[in-house]
Design brief:
Length: 196
C-alpha cells in the first residue's frame, strides 16, 4: 500500500484518483475502477502457470488473478466502521469454513510464510497441512494434520443441499461425503504446493 493507512477518510465527491485510458480493451464509457483486497496463493506462480498454460503468456506475473483470492471488501469496511481497530486476521477468523483440503507434503508451501497468522501452530514432524477455505476460495486457516495424501484431497465440506460447484466457484464438486476437488480445484491446490 506504499505507506498509506488501510483506512483514510475522504469527503463525498473528493477525487481519489485519475483513471487512465489505453485506447484498447474496455472503451472510455465503460472505464471503471476495481477495488480488491487479495491474498496471494504462491510465489511459485510463474512456474505453475507456464506448466499449465504454455500457449497463453502470463501478462501479470505474480499478480495474475489466478494467483489471487479476494476478501469481501464491502463486509470488511462495514466491520471496520463498527471496530476501527479490526485486523485482517481478526476479520478472517470470523469467516465460515466451507471446505478443507489436505495437501501432500511439499517442499514449497508459501501460505504459512506469506500469512503466518493463518497457521494454527507449527507443523509437527511427519505431519502435512490441512487448509480451511471460505466458499469463495479464500484460505482462512492452516493446521497440521497426520492424514497422508498423495494429491490434494477434500477432507471436509459443510453440509448443504446444493451442489458444491455452484457454491465454491467450481473448486469443489459433489455433496457431503462425495465432495471432491474439480479438475480446476485440483489444479489450483497444486499451485499452493508447486512444484511438488
Amino acid at each position: 500500500m506504499g505507506g498509506l493507512e488501510l483506512l483514510q477518510s475522504v469527503k463525498r465527491g473528493q477525487p481519489i484518483a485519475v483513471m487512465g485510458y489505453t485506447g484498447t480493451g474496455i472503451n472510455r464509457e465503460r472505464a471503471h475502477l476495481h477495488l480488491e483486497l487479495c491474498l496471494m496463493f504462491s510465489r511459485q506462480f510463474d512456474a505453475w502457470y507456464s506448466t499449465f498454460f504454455r500457449k497463453d503468456p502470463n501478462r501479470h506475473g505474480l499478480y495474475n488473478g489466478m494467483n489471487l483470492t479476494g476478501l469481501d471488501v464491502a463486509r470488511l469496511y462495514l466491520a471496520l466502521r463498527k471496530n476501527p481497530a479490526l485486523t485482517i486476521p481478526e476479520f478472517l477468523a470470523a469467516e465460515e469454513t466451507f471446505y478443507k483440503v489436505t495437501l501432500p507434503d511439499a517442499r514449497h508451501f508459501d501460505l504459512p510464510t506469506l500469512y503466518s497468522w493463518m497457521s494454527a501452530g507449527g507443523k509437527r514432524s511427519g505431519s502435512t497441512w490441512e487448509v480451511s477455505f471460505a466458499r469463495s476460495g479464500l484460505p482462512l486457516r492452516i493446521e497440521p494434520t497426520d492424514r497422508r495424501v498423495a494429491q490434494p484431497e477434500v477432507s471436509y465440506v459443510k453440509n448443504n443441499t446444493a451442489e458444491c460447484s455452484y457454491l465454491t466457484r467450481d473448486i469443489v464438486s459433489g455433496r457431503g461425503a462425495n465432495a471432491h476437488l474439480t479438475n480446476y480445484g485440483a489444479q489450483l491446490m497444486r499451485l499452493l504446493i508447486w512444484p511438488n
